[in-house]
Design brief:
Elements lengths: L1 H16 L3 H14 L3 H28 L1 H70 L1 H10 L3 H15 L10 H47 L17 H9 L8 H8 L12 H14 L3 H40 L5
Helix pairs in contact: 1-2, 5-6, 6-7, 6-10, 7-10, 7-11
């Protein structure tokens, strides 16, 4: 009985101190296991039942006292629970919608990439079509440039068109005839430029000297100066040797005259291309360089040098003879047989 009393005391102290039901249950089990007498167990059982009844009565009293607050708390708890449940459902739906949007965005991204690639392809096709349209007009424009002797523009146009036809537009079968035509013109273009270069080198330059001599002859006949007039005054004529010597004396920091003139030469379509012979020859050389025909040009100049010089001598001799004859006629009319 003393052991049972001690166990009941520990039980009560445990009940008063511990709020944990599991601790209380363990204490009861320990009390019942230590007591050997059935009567003690029945007594402990009665105490437990009495304690539970007391708890129920206290609970009922508390419910009666705090019924309104308890009802409000239960309703509030139910409302909170419902809101939490609804929020969970909404979050679940939002997650599902986000996954769906993610899949749709992936699909849209693939579609946008496809459309972007198609846009690039269409833009490239439009550029090719514009280029084809421009190239189809090249023969007509080339003929106009050649007729007006704007050879640099013609060379640029021809080289660009042939490069396009043999490059990006090589697979276009409809341009095969135009490709052959322009390629043939490109192969023969340098012959025209070389002929023009020889004409200015050997014929145009000597014609200018002859014109100056005729003007000097007319002036001397007007003033009745009997002193002979030099027929070939070439001191002011720009020759390649003089041009080279002038470039040799340029300062090291500046580019030579020959390089500067060739690089800065531009063709003005508004003026006569042959007005300035030096500029025109520079344009011809630039065109031949674009055609990559400089070696052929040098060889042609070397091959025709002797023939052209003989022609200069022949023309100069005829010019001197004609001027001398005309001068003699003028002097004979003035009764000056000298």
């Amino acid at each position: 009985k003393m052991a049972a009393g001690e166990a009941a005391g520990r039980y009560r102290s445990t009940m008063s101190k511990s709020k944990d039901p599991s601790g209380l249950l363990i204490s009861v089990i320990r009390t019942l296991s230590t007591s050997d007498d059935v009567e003690d167990r029945e007594t402990e059982k009665g105490r437990l039942e009495e304690a539970y009844e007391k708890c129920d009565r206290d609970l009922d009293e508390l419910i009666v006292q705090h019924y309104t607050e308890l009802t409000t708390a239960i309703r509030t708890y139910q409302s909170i629970t419902e809101r939490i449940t609804n929020s969970r459902n909404k979050i679940k739906q939002v997650k599902e919608n986000l996954l769906s949007c993610k899949m749709l965005l992936h699909c849209k991204r693939d579609e946008l990439r496809k459309l972007w690639i198609e846009g690039i392809e269409h833009k490239h096709v439009l550029n090719l079509l514009d280029e084809i349209e421009n190239i189809k007009q090249v023969p007509q424009k080339l003929e106009q440039c050649m007729a007006s002797k704007h050879y640099l523009n013609a060379t640029d146009m021809l080289v660009s068109a042939v490069d396009s036809l043999e490059g990006p537009l090589l697979q276009v079968e409809g341009l095969s005839d135009l490709r052959l035509e322009l390629h043939s013109k490109k192969m023969n273009m340098h012959l025209v430029l070389i002929d023009e270069l020889h004409r200015h080198l050997y014929i145009k330059s000597t014609n200018r000297v002859g014109q100056r001599n005729k003007e000097k002859g007319r002036i001397s006949s007007l003033v009745k100066d009997a002193s002979p007039v030099p027929l070939m005054d070439v001191t002011n004529l720009s020759t390649p040797r003089k041009f080279l010597e002038a470039s040799q004396f340029s300062t090291p920091g500046s580019s030579s005259m020959r390089e500067t003139s060739l690089l800065e030469i531009k063709e003005d379509t508004e003026v006569d291309p042959e007005e300035n012979s030096n500029v025109f020859m520079g344009i011809l050389i630039k065109g031949l360089a674009k055609l990559k025909k400089i070696p052929e040009t040098v060889k042609a100049i070397q091959d025709r040098l002797e023939q052209e010089l003989k022609q200069i001598v022949k023309r100069s001799t005829t010019q001197v003879a004609d001027n001398g004859y005309q001068r003699g006629e003028n002097l004979s009319q003035e009764n000056q047989p000298r």
